């Protein structure tokens, strides 16, 4: 039985929603896509000039580009109080429920994005969080 579906999200664009209850610690799916270098990813998205990417960084310095050969995991939205966690095993990224999630709830991870740019007001606005949780940090960026 399918566990999740992608549909319009009240937080941002599309989101991933539980079709059935998920229990804490349950592996939901793998984040799939083309594995490439950061340099290639940066060039690819600079040329696209969309400001929207599906990149997931790996510990070895490469990234998974969910926009190329990816699956529904690429539609996971950010929330400061995420109900899912992402973890890497041998160059593969898996998403699991961090808490029990009821059928119909949207699944979230904390992006904790890292940037090389100085964190100006304009940069902060570009990475503004709109998750609406009580613990919202106001940004999808990780600690500076």
TrEMBL record:
Protein name according to UniProt: SET domain-containing protein-lysine N-methyltransferase
PROSITE patterns recorded: POST_SET, SET
Record localization: Chromosome
Post-SET domain mapped to chain residues: 125-141
Highest taxon listed in the record's lineage: Bacteria
Keyword terms, alphabetized: Chromosome, Methyltransferase, S-adenosyl-L-methionine, Transferase
Record PANTHER family: SET DOMAIN PROTEINS
Biological processes, Gene Ontology terms: methylation
UniProt organism field: Paraburkholderia fungorum
Molecular-function GO terms, alphabetical: methyltransferase activity
A Gene Ontology term for the protein's cellular component: chromosome
SET domain mapped to chain residues: 2-112
């Amino acid at each position: 039985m399918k566990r999740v579906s992608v549909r319009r999200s009240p937080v941002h664009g599309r989101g991933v929603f539980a079709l059935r209850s998920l229990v804490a610690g349950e592996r939901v799916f793998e984040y799939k896509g083309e594995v490439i270098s950061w340099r290639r990813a940066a060039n690819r998205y600079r040329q696209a000039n969309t400001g929207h990417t599906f990149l997931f960084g790996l510990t070895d310095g490469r990234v998974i580009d969910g926009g190329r050969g990816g699956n529904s995991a690429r539609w996971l939205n950010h929330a400061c109080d995420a109900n899912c966690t992402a973890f890497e095993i041998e160059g593969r990224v898996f998403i699991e429920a961090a808490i029990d999630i009821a059928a119909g709830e949207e699944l979230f991870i904390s992006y904790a994005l890292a940037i090389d740019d100085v964190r100006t007001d304009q940069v902060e606005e570009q990475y503004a969080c709109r998750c609406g949780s009580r613990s919202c940090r106001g940004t999808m960026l990780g600690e500076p």
